[in-house]
Amino acid sequence: MNDKKEIRKLSVKILILLCLLIVVGVAICVLISVSEGAAPDIFEHLQAPLAETETVWIFLGMCVVLIIALMFFAVYTARLLIFLMVSKGKKKKKRVGSKKKSKAFAMLSKLDRKMKHKKKVAYDRFSLEEFCLGFRNYAASELKLYYNIEDIRRFVAGMGVSRIILLQGMSGTGKTSLAYAFGQFVSNDSVIVPVQPMWRERSDLVGYYNEFTKRFNETTLLRKLYEANYCDELYITVLDEVNISRIEYYFAEFLSLLEIPDPKQRYVDITTVTQKGDPKKLKEGKLLLPENMWFVGTANNDDSTFAISDKVYDRAMILNLDSRCEAFEAIKTKAVRASYTNWCELIENAKKNYSLSGAYEEKVKKLDQYLREHFRVSFGNRIMKQLREYVPVMIACGGTEEGAVDDIIAAKILRKLSQQAPAYLRHQLEPLNEFFDEIFGEESMEQCRDVLQQLEKSL
Predict the structure, then answer these.
(1) Which alpha helices (H) appear in 207-294, and where do they start and end?
(2) Is 78 helix (H, G, I), strand (E, B) or coil?
């Protein structure tokens, strides 16, 4: 841009000098004509009186002006030529350089440039209990979304156990809104991805390489995955109507990667076509699945959706939103800046300070044995691991140990009883209720009681 301005200035100066040269040249020609050819003998009249040599001095002055104008004209013309040559060289170099840079990933390359100038952010500090209360009050006061504190705690505690959260329940109970509100509360908007019925593979989520245009069709989810690799914030991806297509197909690679113990080895295949100048975070066409991203699926159970398999249920934390919370007066609360580093510290501190007690561990073992003997249903190592991780975080969020155990058993174990033969299940539900009374006590394990009651009604 500066070169263009300089070239314009030089061109204007040259044009002015050219006009001056023409004017002076014409004036000299006119003077010579008027003097009837006296110019060759001009130096013979230098000693003559002033009146006789007036024309000579005018002639000499014009010659000097002409010579000076020619000198400036030559200098400015030379500078203009140099600038034009340099400018042409820069353009050529730029064209050569642009050939080396990949244009396949426009959005990701733009993110690379943007992150070079990213400023440091001051993050807020809080406890998990404060976080849950603040989230509930923020959703109510700022977004007019109302949730029970128990559901807020279940959502937050679930995030401390798994990167996959399933929100189930009737339409209109605020499943998508809960995940959206969370993004607003932590000052990092949630990505809402409407799942399509025809989705079958990973490319439906992250995009694909177009051989015709030589560009990658980048999705919003891919951009957020890439951005999360740069940042220390909490990221939420909402798979809206997650079971309108088979999640076991289009989300299969993510399910497998999230099972790898070392998060640094979780690379998502993005493309097999690699070029020089590809985005920095892409390694041979693969992108690291960021630790600071959670996938929240909202599920409806009706004729238009597919059943979610045990493979997904076992890996995810499940939250049932079966009723809407009544509106309430909430304390006006501002959004927070939450960092993933601080989040990990909160989860680790919760595990250090709290744990599944021996008494409840024994109760769970007895229930596991009973269910295996009568229903051939078992907790399994994965569910036991989730239970031991969920209980400390739930207590740190302000919940109770019994409530945490109740959540896991109801969502992870008792739901499998619906797969039993109806005639057999009808005769076994009453003894199972009595066993719950014996092990956990009457009027306890509210979630489990609700599941058993729903099973009884469905028979």
Answers:
(1) 220-228, 247-250, 252-257
(2) helix
Six token digits for residue 330: 């909430």
* Secondary structure letter of residue 420 according to DSSP: S
Helix spans in 118-196 (H): 128-143, 149-159, 175-185
The amino acid at residue 73 is: F
- CA–CA gap between residue 426 and residue 419 (Å, rounded): 12
Inter-residue contact 217 to 210 (CB < 8 Å): yes
Q: How far apart are the first and last CA of the chain?
A: 78
With H, G, I as helix, E, B as strand and everything else as coil, classify residue 253. helix
Query: Residue 110: which residues within 8 A CB-CB, separation 6 or more?
Result: none
Tens-place pLDDT, residues 261-301: 999 999 999 999 888 889 999 999 999 999 999 999 999 87
pLDDT at 37: 47
Q: Is 87 exposed, middle or buried (0-12, 13-18, 19+ CB in 10 A)?
A: middle
Q: Dump strand ranges (E) for 48-123.
A: none
Token readout for 329 is 């007066």
pLDDT at 435 over 90: yes
**pLDDT-derived band of residue 304, with 50, 70 and 90 as boundaries?**
confident
**Whole-angstrom distance, CA of residue 319 vs CA of residue 241:** 15
**Count, residues in the chain:** 459
| Under 8 Å between Cβ of 5 and 57 | no
Residue with tokens 């998990």: 128
- Tokens found for residue 353: 């300070």
The residue that leads in pLDDT, 272 or 15, is 272
Question: In the chain, what are the domain boundaries?
Answer: 2-100, 106-352, 354-459
The sign of the dihedral angle between the CA atoms of 103, 107, 112, 113 is positive
DSSP codes, 31-66: HHHHTTS-GGGGGGGTTS-HHHHHHHHHHHHHHHHH
Residue 428: CB atoms within 10 A of its CB come to: 15
pLDDT tens by residue, 222-242 = 999 999 999 999 999 999 999
Q: What whole-number distance in Å separates Cα of residue 217 and Cα of residue 279?
A: 14
Q: Which residues neighbour 358 within 8 Å (Cβ) at sequence distance 6 or greater?
A: none
Instruction: Give yes or no for a contact between 69 and 15, defined as CB atoms under 8 angstroms apart.
Output: no
pLDDT-derived band of residue 405, with 50, 70 and 90 as boundaries?
A: very high
DSSP letter, residue 411: I
Please tell me the chain's helix, strand, coil percentages from 3-state DSSP, rounded to the nearest 5: 60, 10, 30
- CATH superfamily assigned to domain 106-352: P-loop containing nucleotide triphosphate hydrolases (3.40.50.300)
Closest to 364 (Cα-Cα) out of 318, 410, 312, 418 = 410
Pairwise CA distance, residues 455 & 429, whole Å = 8
